[in-house]
Amino acid sequence: MPDSTTSSKRSKVSKPRHDFPLFPHATGRWAKKVRGRLCYFGKTADDPQGEKALERWLDEKDDLLAGRIPRRAGDAGPTVRDLCEDFLQAKARLVESGELSRRSFLDYRRTTDGIVGAFGRHRLLDDLRSGDFDKFRAKLARRLGPVSLGNEINRVRVVFRFGYESDLIDRPVKFGPHFKRPAKRVLRLERKKNGLRMFESAELRTLLDKAGQPLRAMILLGINGGLGASDLARLEISSIDMKGGWIDYPRPKTGIDRRIPLWPETVAALKEAIAQRPAAKDRADIGLVFLTTQGNAWVRFSPMYQDEDGNAKGGVPLDAIGQKFAKLLEDTGLKRPRLGFYALRHTVETIGGDAKDQVALDAIMGHTRDDMASLYRERISDDRLRAVADHVRKWLSQTKKRK
User: Per residue in 70-129, pLDDT tens?
Assistant: First the structure.
């Protein structure tokens, strides 16, 4: 049971005057909300009149209002927590301006949580050595595969490079010789061990026969034009020309324009799915092609909130397409490692490449190349785009001959 004496003391503490800038928080600390985040300035029980808390607020006020980590007298230097908080604040501003996706921000937040967990929040940045990163890498390798490990190591390096480039630390961090992505040989062996990350035509026909709407329309769009789950979740009806059989839809991930020729069966499935679509729960989703039975977007994020320490929580990605597709794979006996909805894009890239027009395939997939030809090319004919889509359609309808 809570200490009744402590609870009584908390309830008696109040602002010493009307214009006092701080307030007694329910956790028994003097607090103030700054830039949408709660900041704390010591226990009310130790400072009932808030004199020390006010002095600390005035010392830290300029830094807090500017979004910086406060520096107090006697600080030995920036800590791991300082670095991670500064980094996340900078990335949050990019999310607000539309320059960074929320999914990427969440990936970075998981990375900073891992950094704090490995080194400790109060560890001085100047105290980190290459041996610390060797141990960190070994810890990551125990729970991550080679590809995920490489991505995580890259994000960790991004965080510490930010600290140097933003003048939080005076010199680049020395990671040591081993804190690197796994070698390409390791990645090739891992990929071979897990098998091909694509579907065969017979497998796709099985999935299409078993799937109900709207999942059937989603699968067709995935193999017809290489649309991923996030692409489908934000696809709007206004982007589709049902009569002509085209989609003009830039990739949400990169903003690269795409023009996709639709198969007749894809158009038919889309019309059926839209006719069955429930009403949107959120006005912002009214124009979406696909909505869940509750009227939500199929891929979205849980609400963001702050805990009592002011740390951002929530914002977890909710991928209903991936979940429903995984259930379909299990029901049809096609489930295997690394095979999910995104494997449809791998399939389109693999089979579409046999049409021998990589430029047209890139335009359908929403890929871009950093070369002069891509810079000069202003358009691609519809005939070339249709030739690639028709090649994939023909492959899908063929039954593989047995020897």
Answer: 765 555 688 999 999 999 999 989 988 888 888 889 899 999 999 999 998 888 898 899
Domain of 182 in residue numbering reads as 80-194
CA distance 45 to 47: 6
Contact 339, 329 (CB under 8 A): yes
Residue type at 274 in one-letter notation: I
Residue 84: partners with Cβ closer than 8 Å, 6 or more residues away = 112, 115, 116, 159
User: Does residue 283 sit in the same domain as residue 365?
Assistant: yes
CA atoms of 12 and 53, how far apart (whole Å): 17
H helices present in 244-357, as ranges? 264-275, 320-331, 343-352
User: Which pair of structure tokens corresponds to residue 28?
Assistant: 């028994």
Residue 21 burial class via C-beta count within 10 angstroms: exposed 0-12, middle 13-18, buried 19 and up: middle
Q: Which of 175, 194, 213 is the last residue of a domain?
A: 194
In terms of phi and psi (left: phi > 0; alpha: psi -120 to 50; beta: otherwise), the region of 212 is: beta
In a shared domain, residues 126 and 252: no
Decide: pTM greater than 0.85.
no
28 domain-assigned: no
